[in-house]
Design a protein that fits this description.
single chain; 107 residues; mainly alpha; Arc Repressor Mutant, subunit A; two-stranded parallel ribbon; 5 helices; 4% strand
Length: 107
Amino acid sequence: MNSFERIYEVVREIPRGNVATYGQVAALAGNRRWSRVVGFALHVNPDPEGIPCYRVVNRNGEVSSAFAFGGGNRQIELLEADGIPCPDGRVDLAKYQWRKVAAGWIE
């Protein structure tokens, strides 16, 4: 399984009503240094319906201004449809971050 496939596998697991950070996805996919690789993989997401890349935000909970499927506003719309408020384009990670972590992962 290549790195993108591992990343997509992790992103598919993010439950509705939760988000994960790029670093968290990277660590769960096997390499905590892959944060940028996660961004590249999500930008070319082959299955937006099955791989909910909009549930991935930066380490500050901010949505991407360059969200691949319609810009930051579209990411906010999708997150809010999942029940995650995004005032000022930011998610409250203390409340909505997925609690799954990889061994040894620290953000």
